[in-house]
Amino acid sequence: MISKGSLCDCLLHFGKEIMSRYKFCVFDFDLTLVDSSKAILKCYKHTLEKFGFAIPDDRVIYNTIGKTLTESFEILTKESDAEKIAQMRAEYVSKADEVMAKESVFYDDTLAMLQVLQCAGVKVGIVSTKYRYRIVDTFRCHTSSMPVDMIIGGEDVTLPKPDPQGLELMISKFGACKEDVLYIGDSYIDAQTARNAGVDFAAVTTGSTTASEFEKYPNIYIGSSLTDIFLHI
Fold first, then answer.
1. pTM of the model
2. Does residue 196 contact residue 218 with C-beta atoms inside 8 Å?
3. pLDDT of res. 1
4. How many Cα atoms occupy the beta-carbon half-sphere of 24 within 13 Å?
5. Which of 99, 123, 152, 186 could be bridged to 166 by S-S, CB 3.0 to 4.6 A?
6. How far is CA 117 from CA 48, 113, 216, in A?
7. Where in the sequence of the chain do the CATH 3.40.50.1000 domains occur?
8. Are 42 and 100 in contact, with CB atoms under 8 Å apart?
9. Residue 178 pLDDT exceeds 60
10. Average pLDDT of 67-83?
11. Nearest in space to 147 (alpha carbons), one of 6, 15, 9, 13
């Protein structure tokens, strides 16, 4: 049996191996670090029903995760009235305030992986279309620690992913060289974002984008989990 001390030593060595290639690991949030699908589906269904729209199949809603709320509601409702879309966004956010943090679940390896990276000296960031305060609330709801050095959320940018603005803002604030940065995400939108920013990308297939779809974009590895990715890069 491996002792707790030996396991910690192994994990630290693992983190140092990563740092030899990347000094900055930046993650998407939803479906990359957390399974928030249950809460997201609940918020969309609540909002669509309240505004009198038919509720589509769960998979149709699920496939919009990673887009902005405006884009998603336009896809799900075919609505073009900007004021109505804004009202729906506000209703979604209100419902999300109630359920999102507590009904989102970190993947089994997420917190340990982030801690290992930080202990090894790797800077850890999150760039997401989700509001920054919501990401912070999710950590606070489920753990006493938040092993993240910087968060760029939807309220911090004027252009959402796949525009590289958020990722480039983080790179600038870190004072990082792009060749030292790895971006990890679950969506083709994340792959496009990394490509647009000029940084390496690793894909995790915990979202709606398949491995074959990821193969269309530059990537260093396509894995089934964060652990799978970091064991192979």
1. 0.90
2. no
3. 33
4. 24
5. 152
6. 40, 6, 28
7. 10-35+105-232
8. no
9. yes
10. 95
11. 15
